[in-house]
Write a structure and sequence with these properties.
The chain is mainly α. It is built from 17 helices and no strands. Helix 2 (33-51) runs antiparallel to helix 6 (121-149) and helix 10 runs parallel beside helix 14. The protein is globular, with a radius of gyration of 21 Å. Residues 34-409 form the Major facilitator superfamily (MFS) profile domain.
């Protein structure tokens, strides 16, 4: 009986067992209206990540900017997003989730419009930073809101969130390519208009303010990273995101010499990439986690992503080869995004907004490093080298998870398995 007591004192994961959803059992499609409002706005928010992808060569050409300067459109956005993520849980715990979501969307609308009206690349870089601030306020709060309000448990909520992410990332390049074929300014204005629709959707459909949590200390996300489980996952995500953004942000410049430099062509390529990501987020990731622990899924898929990036480097002279690697990469990224997010949400007993802020802050900072570093590596060492560097970074992420696996028991559901076993023993004793 002492074993039962000890496990009860430590608590157990509330939602899953590390091998897929255990509670709820309902379809992820049966959700409250408020969840759909936030998910819809998430799709639009995530469009902002890939929106500029197809127009990077056009911006570089029309504004006389170097590839590295143009890649700073990603870096300024991601750096501010990452830094701001550490403070979003503190803010939302004081003013409420709905207000935080609306402030974030309003900032995105303003800075997207400003970027579209800019006359030089330096100004766009600055406005993309402001866009990143709005993005941080929205994304971190949206994840916690969906997880808290969705029916079907944590896993169903995260699958819905990752589906929104995948759909947004898929649609972003497509719209960016379509509007970018008219003018490089078009995607920025289009994003502002869509964000305005999301803003109205939150006002109308999220009528009831989600339950306001107890005020969170400003230092909480930083202290959270001292938790071994969360710290390991965040560190791995930093290196994983370097590979993610090498594929997303550098590949357009790698495809230009291969005759695939038009905005519409790049938009279609990354539309395929985003659709692949969305499909595996929703269907393949749950299938895998029902059959093995989350950490084992990550151990399996991360090396496959590294191989895919390395293959892109080997096939750098083949347009078909690089595009194939992009699509395959989307399939692998969908699994990794979902499983990593689930792991973070279950890795500790911390409030989910705190865990989300800490993890997302580190993750986005990793993504900020990759775009300009990739173009610099290509300039000095050749166009294949960024893909090899991305592959090496993904392998570092895998090594971190393998070496730190003892601290991921809670994310894997091992504590809950022990608790259930202890309950059975206790029932037998009584």
């Amino acid at each position: 009986m002492s074993r039962v007591t000890a496990l009860a004192e430590h608590g157990t994961p509330a939602a899953t067992d590390g091998r897929g959803p255990r509670e709820g059992g309902g379809s992820i499609l049966h959700q409250p209206t408020a969840v759909w409002a936030v998910a819809f706005a998430c799709v639009i928010a995530f469009m902002g990540i890939g929106l500029v992808d197809p127009i990077l060569p056009a911006i570089a050409r029309e504004l006389a900017a170097s590839p590295t300067q143009t890649e700073m459109l990603f870096t300024s956005y991601l750096v501010i997003t990452g830094i701001a993520m550490f403070f979003t849980s503190w803010l939302s715990s004081r003013i409420g989730a709905k207000r935080t979501l609306l402030i974030g969307l309003a900032l995105i609308i303003v800075f997207a419009l400003a970027a579209g009206l800019s006359q030089n690349v330096e100004t766009i870089i600055g406005f993309r930073a402001g866009w990143g601030l709005g993005n941080a306020l929205f994304i971190s709060t949206a994840l916690a809101t969906i997880v808290g309000a969705a029916s079907g448990g944590t896993s169903s909520a995260i699958i819905l969130y990752e589906a929104a992410l995948g759909l947004g990332i898929a649609i972003g390049p497509l719209i960016g390519g379509l509007l970018g074929s008219i003018s490089w300014r078009g995607p920025f204005f289009g994003s502002a208009a869509l964000m305005a629709i999301g803003f109205v959707a939150i006002i109308v459909m999220l009528k009831k303010e989600p339950q306001k949590p107890a005020p969170i200390r400003l230092s909480a996300p930083f202290r959270a990273l001292a938790r071994p489980g969360l710290g390991i996952l965040a560190s791995a995500a930093l290196f994983y995101n370097i590979g993610f953004f090498v594929l997303l942000a550098y590949t357009p410049f790698a495809l230009v010499p291969l005759g695939l430099g038009s905005a519409i062509t790049l938009g279609l390529v990354f539309f395929g990439w985003g659709i692949s990501l969305a499909v595996t987020s929703v269907w393949v990731a749950p299938l895998l986690t029902r059959r093995m622990r989350r950490s084992r899924v990550l151990w399996l898929v991360l090396p496959l992503l590294a191989l895919d990036l390395a293959a892109a480097g080997v096939l750098i002279g083949s347009a078909g080869g690089v595009v194939t690697c992009v699509i395959v990469g989307g399939l692998l990224l969908g699994v990794l995004n979902t499983v990593l997010t689930e792991s973070v949400m279950e890795a500790t007993d911390l409030p989910r907004p705190v865990a989300s802020s800490a993890y997302s802050g580190v993750r986005f900072l990793g993504g900020a490093i990759a775009p300009p570093a990739a173009t610099l590596l290509a300039e000095f060492f050749g166009p294949a080298v960024p893909f090899y560097a991305g592959a090496a970074s993904v392998l570092v992420a895998c090594a971190i998870l393998v070496l730190g696996h003892r601290h991921l028991a809670r994310a894997d559901g091992a504590m809950e398995d022990e608790f259930e076993e202890a309950e059975a023993i206790g029932a037998g004793d009584s």
